[in-house]
Protein 1
Amino acid sequence: MTDAPAIPDFSRGVDGLLPAIAQDAGSGRVLMLAWMNPQAWQETLETGQATYWSRSRGKLWRKGETSGHRQRVTEIRVDCDADTILLSVEQTGAACHDGYASCFYRTIQSDGSATVADSRLVDPNDVYGKGSDAPSA
């Protein structure tokens, strides 16, 4: 068996960013996909709390900083190419800024239409303020 690098290879990512998948530590359900740069990676390692890079805001995104819906990291894995990160997390509250447990709350039908398959846990207006734009990755 060949040993892969122990840390992610950020040089393989676009603009130094690698995809980071957050997965529920208990159920295994995929909660979200976000992006990490070396700074987000280091902060995640140091704090044990998921930290990402927000492409839309151009800065670190400490998951739950605004909403309180934090992710405590229980395990970190990297794929065989060291260019994708998998975080096993204990999620507090909704992972999705739309108020759902997972960002993957819609199913797509054979005609291409979408159906909401999950129940909303929280109203985003209550979390982020009425009429405000919910944070995006």
Protein 2
Amino acid sequence: MATRKPKMKIKKNDLVQVISGRSQANGGDKGKQGKVIAVYPETQRVLVEGINRVTKHVRAGQPGSSSGGIEVVEAPIHVSNVAIVDPETNKPTRIKTRVESVERDGRTKTVRTRVSVRSGKDL
């Protein structure tokens, strides 16, 4: 039995805003915006640029890091804690999918477009 990957509405390079967690006044990331670097559908998590930064101890001689020490890197955050930013209002929004039938070369093709619920604009 093959396992299916869960569906994710957030894609790589989307601009997202953190909508839950600790506030910025308490040292958290709530309200911050950043670009999605990577999406992990298996664990329902996304990696966002500049969000959820953690300190990581790296041993000297590991590939990708010439010297050891303490590094600050982004950690994945759950997809339910972020929302896509509406390009028109610059505020978080939900997403709906508009399905259209397009006819090309005598064939009917189904096209799915992500649409912002807040402004109705395509994403």
Protein 3
Amino acid sequence: MNLANGLTLSRIFLIPIYLLFFYSTLEKRIVYAGIVLILSGITDILDGYIARKYDMITKLGTALDPVADKLTTFAVLVSFNSYGLIPPWILIVLGMKELALIVGGGILYYFGGEKVIPANKFGKVATFSFYVAIISVILSLSQMMTNILLYIAITFHLFAFLNYLTIFKTIMRDKDEA
């Protein structure tokens, strides 16, 4: 296991810590959970940077990175929705998108020749915009600003989904033609 993969695993281990803070009875629980989330975001940036810069890209890391992203996204969506910090439709839309990507990734891996679609700029922008929107909630920015950031994040997520769908269809079509 290399450093980049270790950082990716640390993001998965930060999820229960985030949830412990979020659901605790501490007075500033949302802020503490937000700090853990920011730490997770920093490790997300670092793991990709280190993997590319020091040629540590592995199949394990390529598969684990989106898993860490999806688990973090689900944890935040469910926790924020459970306390009414985001509307349920955001959980439903982004949750369905993430589930579709998980199912599609499984299909691609098992029936598409063990292929994994690596993270790309569309997914990275979507993830970054999600962090920004969630941090705006944590910082209690104006409702209008938070709503704008949430709509931007959802838009980027839907564009990223369409991009991954196009790649998925191309890989599956090429496999069938081979």
Protein 4
Amino acid sequence: MKKIVLATTLLAATFAFANPYAACVACHGANGEKVALGKSKIIKDLTKAEFVAALKGYQDGTYGGPMKGMMTGQVKGMSEATMQELADKIVK
């Protein structure tokens, strides 16, 4: 199981540098409809403000439960503009 999580993390991180949306899709699904690795919230159900606040919280270490370690790496260095673009794409 640890190998699967590690492989998923590395794959998602690789995509994140090229396309942050691809990193989201890898775990959360194309429309944010999945519970990532069986532990996350369904992100499409968040408001855009909640989504961006969660990303900022992961970035500064003030948000997150079991996925905190993985998500911190995903949002490291992500700009607020990118966070908003992701919110616009995923949260309807």
